[in-house]
Amino acid sequence: MSGMTGASMLRTRRKDVNVKPNRKLDRKSSRGMLYENEELRLRTININAEVERGQSDIKKLKRENEQLKREISALRYEYDRLDSMLRERRSSPEHSDSIFNCHVPRSKS
Fold first, then answer.
1. For residue 5, is it within any domain?
2. How far apart are the first and last CA of the chain?
3. Is CB count within 10 Å lower at the N or C end of the chain?
4. What is the dihedral of CA 28, 31, 33, 34, to 10 degrees?
5. What does each of the 109 residues of the chain score in pLDDT, given as a tens digit?
6. For 109, which DSSP code?
């Protein structure tokens, strides 16, 4: 047996397995392994699908987060613009009677 290569040794061992007297038990055992392997394969597929869904959710949340950041930035810019306009109107003497300080008469109904 020392002159055999690795591949031929494996073939010889495989042949020896088939010669065993408890072939029925071996076949059952092998079938059990197939079922176990199939179960593990299905669990792996489910886990991978769950991970993929999680990654997809993360991508969606990142996009949403970026959109919200842009909206916040636009709102800050708009607030600063309006705030500076308001300060400018309040500080200038010609706008002392602006819409912010004047009395608007109510219409009679």
1. no
2. 114
3. C
4. 180
5. 455 555 555 555 555 555 555 444 444 566 667 777 888 999 999 999 999 999 999 999 999 999 999 999 999 999 999 999 999 999 987 755 555 555 555 565 4
6. -
Domain that holds residue 44: 13-89
d(C-alpha 31, C-alpha 21), whole Å? 17
98 part of a folded domain: no
Residue 102 included in any domain: no
Q: What is the pTM of this model?
A: 0.47
Query: What are the structure tokens assigned to 37, written together?
Result: 């392997």
Q: How far apart are CA 98 and CA 17, in angstroms?
A: 100
Cα distance between residue 18 and residue 57, in whole Å: 51
